[in-house]
Design brief:
The structure is a single chain. The chain contains 9 helices and 22 strands. Helix 1 (81-100) runs parallel beside helix 9 (377-387). The chain has helices at 81-100, 152-164, 198-207, 260-273, 289-294, 308-320, 333-338, 358-364, 377-387, and strands at 2-4, 7-8, 14-18, 21-25, 33-41, 45-55, 121-127, 130-134, 141-143, 173-181, 184-191, 211-217, 229-235, 239-243, 246-250, 279-283, 300-305, 326-330, 346-349, 369-374, 391-399, 409-416. With 421 residues, it is of the alpha/beta class. It binds S-adenosylmethionine.
């Protein structure tokens, strides 16, 4: 079937309409004419594959990665960067229209300075004799020796570890996690039982500067990567960073944005949205960097974080930088938030992929200013739907935290409506 691609789907697939039915065509670009064949009829829509591209979009580029199309990591490497940014802005606009029934201005997606080599953390899996990433829509590992969205440091260390791991230990290994920021690197080997890694630390420290090695013994059978005992084998214990005039440490396990450039752009925008003299609750505050940045402008900040290790990093950040107008609170946001009633006027939320949920949104309803950072547009819109009657959306800015992938980070600024009666 020959058809014209007229739009993009939620995951960056090309959309064609044939006899009134939507066909999602992975890898096809808007404006292209493609010969496709049906892969799966899902009832109200269908999935198709490209047999042949009849006319090419001017936005089509050669993907840099030899695994593109098989690997589940990137979806958009065939689009030039201008088209990727346009796709992400439209994705947010369409999601808002669909879930909130609003036609609203969405700012242009803020670009990342680098489209490749931008990630500071990789998690490679091991299964069936292969190291790599999961294949597209599968839990089978694709054998990978290089990932172009990771930094060169991560790729070099990954390749070195693969070459030097003792074959007899391989059956117990589940993942290799590498976090590299600036010139410092932490590596964690996740294994199902104790394995001696002293030889690996010796080799790593002889070949790379500023490196530390951990072993995580994770006996879980589910997909959680890091869990259970974390044992420091040698070298660096954490990464020390100077950013926004603050010195802080990042460990191997706590959440940390994976793109330093876009993280800084996002946090600068959050800071601009903080009213002068505000008292702020920063929910889901992670290692405390954002709370500490907000404390530069706000009168007082309360950060609430459930992860113990992230909370202790946040406390260290606070004390190392002598921040006096910040309290880091350890615990569940909903429960701890209740203890702060009437003490604040502004909330900054940065929840996990599943969003805040109805209970949290109902609890924060009524706060003067809400600033919401989200990595999941659907969860974001479902959360906003809970409070929207009482708020005006003042700004929506997508940030390209994850170039070449379908993912996008969104910043929303809301102001409580004035009710006249
Ligand atoms: C997307 S991260 C944001 C962290 C931080 N703002 C940053 O940029 O580093 C979400 C954080 O929410 C925390 N979290 C998850 N559920 C939580 C809950 N119920 N209450 C408080 N924090 C929670 C996670 O541990 C994680 O650190």
């Amino acid at each position: 079937m020959v058809s014209n691609i007229i739009d993009y789907g939620m995951h960056g697939e090309g959309v064609a309409i044939i006899d009134g039915k939507v066909f999602l065509v992975s890898g096809a670009l808007v404006g292209e004419s493609v010969d496709i064949s049906l892969l799966e009829d899902k009832g109200n829509y269908a999935i198709a594959k490209i047999n042949n591209i009849i006319s090419l979009s001017t936005h089509r580029v050669q993907p840099k990665c030899k695994y593109f199309g098989q690997c589940g990591g990137c979806q958009l490497q065939m689009m030039d960067y201008e088209e990727q940014l346009k796709f992400k802005t439209l994705l947010i606009k369409k999601t808002i229209r669909k879930i909130l029934n609003l036609d609203i201005n969405v700012a242009d997606t803020v670009a990342c300075d680098k489209q490749y080599n931008y990630r500071n953390k990789a998690s490679f899996s091991y299964s069936d004799g292969k190291f790599g990433y999961y294949k597209e829509k599968s839990k089978n590992v694709l054998d990978i020796d290089y990932c172009p969205i990771q930094s060169d440091t991560i790729n070099n260390i990954y390749s070195f570890i693969k070459q030097h791991l003792i074959p007899s230990s391989l059956n117990d290994i589940k993942h290799i996690i590498i976090r590299a920021i600036g010139i410092q690197t932490l590596v964690c080997i996740v294994a199902s039982k104790y394995i001696d890694l002293s030889y690996l630390y010796k080799l790593l420290s002889e070949n790379f500067y500023n490196i530390g090695l951990y072993l995580n013994i994770n006996t879980r059978k589910d997909s959680v990567v890091l869990s259970g005992t974390l044992k420091h084998i040698g070298g660096l214990k954490e990464i020390t960073v100077n950013n926004f005039g603050l010195t802080y440490t990042i460990d191997i396990s706590a959440f940390q944005q994976t793109n330093n450039d876009v993280q800084n752009k996002l946090y600068s925008s959050v800071l601009e949205f903080i009213p002068d003299n505000a008292t702020v609750v920063n929910g889901f505050s992670g290692n405390g960097l954002l709370s500490a940045i907000i404390a530069k402008r706000a009168k007082y900040v309360y950060g609430i974080e459930i992860n113990k290790s992230a909370h202790f990093s946040a406390e260290k950040l606070k004390f190392d930088n002598n921040i006096r107008n910040l309290s880091n609170i350890l615990g569940d946001f909903y429960k701890k938030f209740d203890t702060l009633r009437d003490k604040f006027d502004t909330i900054v939320l940065d929840p996990t992929k599943k969003g805040c949920g109805k209970q949290v949104m109902q609890a924060i309803d009524g706060t003067e200013n809400i600033i919401y950072i989200s990595c999941n547009p659907i969860a974001l819109c479902k959360d906003l739907r809970v409070i929207l009657d009482n708020y005006i959306i003042e700004e929506i800015i997508p940030f390209d935290m994850f170039p070449n992938t379908e993912n996008v980070e969104t910043l929303v600024k809301l102001k409580r409506r004035i009710k006249w009666f």
